[in-house]
Amino acid sequence: MRLGIDVGRARIGVARCDAGAVLAVPVETVARSADGDADVRRILAIADEFGAVELVVGNPLAMSGRATASTDDAVGFATVLAAAGGESRPVRLVDERLSTVTAQQHLRASGKKARQQRPIVDQAAAVIILQHALDVERTSGAAPGRVIPTDEGSTPL
């Protein structure tokens, strides 16, 4: 079982997959901690609760493939998560271009108004990130993205 994580400035969406790694479903929206590690601790607690063997974090690159401020933020968060989680639970960064836009479109198509989307859009984006990673791995036979080494600590990449 894996967790998918959509890192935002205010909220972090969390999704999980089934034991067969076929289908991703939403789990929770975690408030982003401005000072402290409550968000990291909550995500690790969710990982423990579901028996997650890997954490898949979205890497929000620009459409050109270049890093942005959001990319730096997500990579920094993934690095802290990897250091806190230890070697037994790898943290993998995967390309997530347009996941939030796609999540908003899906929610709008399901009849959710913009105000109704706010508490769940991050979870929906996490589902898209994780489902994409599962699909890529199933079709290619190789895990997508890259694993964050646990010895990188909190040093920016």
Which structural traits does this protein have?
5 helices; Nucleotidyltransferase, domain 5; alpha/beta; 6 strands; disordered C terminus; 157 residues; globular; 41% helix
What does this structure look like?
- This protein has one domain: Nucleotidyltransferase, domain 5, CATH 3.30.420.
- Helices cover 41% and strands 22% of the residues.
- It is built from five helices and six strands, in the order E-E-E-H-E-H-E-H-H-H-E.
- It has a six-stranded mixed β-sheet, sandwiched between helices.
- Strand 4, helix 2 and strand 5 form a beta-alpha-beta unit.
- The longest helix has 20 residues.
- The protein starts with a strand and ends in a 9-residue tail after the last strand.
- It holds the Pfam family RuvX.
- Its main location: cytoplasm.
- InterPro entries: RNaseH-like_sf (IPR012337), YqgF (IPR005227), YqgF/RNaseH-like_dom (IPR006641), YqgF/RNaseH-like_dom_sf (IPR037027).
